[in-house]
Amino acid sequence: EEVNNFKEIFDELLKYNIDIEVCGTWLWLHGETYAIKDELKKLGFKWGPKKKLWYYHEGDYKKRGKHEMTMDQIREKHGSKKYKGTAKPALN
């Protein structure tokens, strides 16, 4: 069930002009996300103020230790795959 929910959220994100990064079982969003922040909150995303990125993770997460990982450390530990949303910019 978690996999289906993850896929539905991922498919929803492809509608937007943002960069989506999958690291393990986490989704991280890069780019101009301010305009869609309300939609992201509805999908269950949270703002990570230290990394300045939106993130999503299904289920509980227990941090082990006090060390804060950088995105590069997360990528190295869990792997990373990046995707680009398909939304077209509006023409003026």
Number of strands: 5
The helix-strand sequence is HEEHEEHE
Determine the mean pLDDT.
86
End-to-end distance: 42 Å
Main beta-sheet strand count, sense and barrel state? 5 strands, antiparallel
Q: Give the % helix.
A: 25-40%
* Oligomer kind: single chain
Sum up the overall morphology in one term: globular
Radius of gyration: 14 Å
Per DSSP, the total helix count is 3
Strand order of the largest sheet: 3-4-2-1-5
Please outline the helices and strands.
Elements: H1 2-13, E1 19-23, E2 26-30, H2 37-43, E3 46-48, E4 53-57, H3 71-78, E5 81-84
Antiparallel strand pairs: 1-2, 1-5, 2-4, 3-4
Descriptive account of the structure:
The protein is 29% helix and 24% strand. It contains three helices and five strands. The protein has a five-stranded antiparallel sheet. It is globular. The mean pLDDT is 86.
Summary keywords:
92 residues, alpha+beta, five-stranded antiparallel β-sheet, 5 strands, globular
